[in-house]
Amino acid sequence: MEEDGALLGAIARGSKAAFQSFYERHAGRLLGYVLRVTRDRSLAEDVVQEVFTAIWQKASSYQAEQGTPLAWMYRIARNKLVDRWRRGPPGVAWASEAERPVLALVQADPELSMSLERALEGLSPEQRQAVELAVLGGYTHEEAATELSVPLGTLKSRIRMALRHMRALLTE
């Protein structure tokens, strides 16, 4: 995780080697996530390319206090998926309604989208990172715990508290 932060710093300074390293570390998993959502390999590859283009262009805007580098990357991916979903051709083979990314469904409703963003912003950085990786990012709990360098029980506790907090905010 610290290495990813250092890589993003180097990418922000224009290091192609750092970008290559970051890409090699994460492109496969990101492609798997996007492919599960879209069920279209060509579309998934396009979205992954857009995500890494955005990382190259916006690496200097990454702020560690806002979340891990991977949470930031998945946030970019979700935004790209939502953009594609909103403007995409009707024939795009998206996964079933239940399997679409949570934010893609929520962001179709601007009011609900704003409420969800406010709820995410109301979480502690640790809770937000846990939710972004394990709930929104497609990581298993074990993978997210490893990525965040916390015990599995701690991760589950953070997610549980975060979802409880978000539920309370969203039902007000």
From TrEMBL:
<dbReference type="InterPro" id="IPR013324">
    <property type="entry name" value="RNA_pol_sigma_r3/r4-like"/>
</dbReference>
<dbReference type="GO" id="GO:0003677">
    <property type="term" value="F:DNA binding"/>
</dbReference>
<dbReference type="InterPro" id="IPR013249">
    <property type="entry name" value="RNA_pol_sigma70_r4_t2"/>
</dbReference>
<dbReference type="InterPro" id="IPR036388">
    <property type="entry name" value="WH-like_DNA-bd_sf"/>
</dbReference>
<dbReference type="GO" id="GO:0006352">
    <property type="term" value="P:DNA-templated transcription initiation"/>
</dbReference>
<keyword id="KW-0804">Transcription</keyword>
<dbReference type="GO" id="GO:0016987">
    <property type="term" value="F:sigma factor activity"/>
</dbReference>
<feature type="domain" description="RNA polymerase sigma factor 70 region 4 type 2">
    <location>
        <begin position="114"/>
        <end position="166"/>
    </location>
</feature>
<protein>
    <recommendedName>
        <fullName>RNA polymerase sigma factor</fullName>
    </recommendedName>
</protein>
<comment type="similarity">
    <text>Belongs to the sigma-70 factor family. ECF subfamily.</text>
</comment>
<dbReference type="Pfam" id="PF08281">
    <property type="entry name" value="Sigma70_r4_2"/>
</dbReference>
<dbReference type="Pfam" id="PF04542">
    <property type="entry name" value="Sigma70_r2"/>
</dbReference>
<keyword id="KW-0805">Transcription regulation</keyword>
<dbReference type="InterPro" id="IPR014284">
    <property type="entry name" value="RNA_pol_sigma-70_dom"/>
</dbReference>
<dbReference type="InterPro" id="IPR007627">
    <property type="entry name" value="RNA_pol_sigma70_r2"/>
</dbReference>
<feature type="domain" description="RNA polymerase sigma-70 region 2">
    <location>
        <begin position="22"/>
        <end position="87"/>
    </location>
</feature>
<dbReference type="InterPro" id="IPR039425">
    <property type="entry name" value="RNA_pol_sigma-70-like"/>
</dbReference>
<keyword id="KW-0731">Sigma factor</keyword>
<dbReference type="InterPro" id="IPR013325">
    <property type="entry name" value="RNA_pol_sigma_r2"/>
</dbReference>
